[in-house]
Request: fold
Amino acid sequence: MIESTADRSARRSFVSYYLPLIFWMAFIFFASSASFSAANTSTFIEPLLKWLFPNASLATLTFMHFVIRKLAHFTEYAVLAILAARAFDRSGLAGSRNRWFLISAILVMAYALLDEYHQSFVPSRSASVIDSLVDMTGGFTALLIIRRRRSKLR
Reply:
């Protein structure tokens, strides 16, 4: 069976644009497991913080660990939004190309909520609406930056 140029192009497009998005979503799912619970991340983040800030109190180190974890939430969803915008904007489907912002925003919102729902079933994790809001804020911030940069380029 001979593959057409259009088929080859569609497959290349999927691999280039959608596969990174799917892999990142899988990473977020993995990061929602017990391996990335606060108790587990504290085993490597807190010693690093103690080394960087030897005179910091335990309360300060605990707060810094909390902030780092929230920044990780923000960042992982900013990356998700960037990958989603890239995939949907370059999609072979005209409808998704024209609505890349909306589709990406819906994906970020839905995945943030599903992520916290997933965490509610992991014994060492807890579901938090605040974490979902941090996730969504990271994603929306990235999408707004992308949209603003694109409008300036036009």
